[in-house]
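Feature request, filed as a ticket because there's no other form

It would be nice if the structure record came with a short human-readable summary line next to the tokens. Right now we just get the raw output. Example of a typical job, pasted below so the devs can see what we mean:
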Amino acid sequence: MPRIWRQVGRGLLALCVVVTLALGVGVATHFQVVEQGLKTYSLLRFQALQPVSTDRLLTGAIKGMVESLDDPYSTYLDAETYRKLQESVTGSYGGVGLLITLDEKDRRLVVVSPFKGTPAQRAGVKSGDYITAIDGRDTAGMDLETASNLMQGQPGTKVELSILSTGATAPRKVSLTREVIKVPTVDGKMLPGHPGVGYISLTMFNEQTGADLGRELADLRSQGMQKLVLDLRNNPGGALPAAVDVASYFVAKGPIVYIADQKTSEPLMARGYAQPLPLVVLVNKGSASAAEIVAGAIKDTKSGNLVGETTFGKGIVQTIFPLPGNAAVKITTHKYLTPGKHDINKKGITPNYVVTMDPQLEQQVLTHAPDLERDVQLQKALEVLGK
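Raw output as currently delivered:
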């Protein structure tokens, strides 16, 4: 045998020994738990009254591992759920237009915000409402992906939600007809009666938002815009790169956000195409995640002022890891800090000017934004810009 092959053979043998020892140490260290797992598999596979396949048992084991994190944002995504998640970020899907999360105290499904112009918003579903049932199925203990799957479906079909609003003693039933939800991005106009003031609403952060915003800003500048109201109310967030892109239109230089794990903190820097102008950003408790990244960057760098109510407080980042078979796991891997190194998770961002609004009035004015007559937060924004 040539010398080179003898060396390769010895190397492979050494690798096998190392792998075997590593597995042996792992099993020995956790022998009792491994033994329990094997015993449970055997019992379920061969003793359960209802037949169950090995694939289903192993999928359940994967779900259980992710659920052991006790993190409402970390979950296993089967192939269909993963496909729908990709659609919501990149294009459109059939559904009712709700961003939901889990209340961390009692693990109930709660609405972060409805998307503008969708069946859910038209039916009066609001930020902070609890979803207690979907098509009669109790949502207690239900994970986010299951709930999303139940609400999504073929356009034209119906889904019934049981909604419990703050202060209500019993839930109300809302029947919604699913539509093609085109994930909204940017809407802008010049404000009548306020020369030189532009208004732009961002209702989601997806792959198109940065480019859409750039075009809208250029268009409004061509119409004489000299000041801007940026409306992030009920913006549920979305893609992190889109948030950095959007903030870069307003923050001239330096970090937009710090992405931190257990050991390190990495700044994501402004991309260098800002054309600063007098700016007020509208926020409320439905402003979450990527919307908070933009709001925090603008506030900390003093690139503009925030008006409205304290934001939702989702300061953590999820990463999606594809798995074989078109499945994936979504895991909370990082938290983010504002340019001033503020951790806003579960705290939110307090505006420079706090202006509260009656929830019922808020629902009405946001449905028809910009509402110059009734929107007290927009009125305050214009007052601040006037200074």
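Something like this underneath would help us a lot:
The CA atoms of residues 188 and 200 lie 4 Å apart.
The chain has two domains: 92-182, 186-318+333-386.
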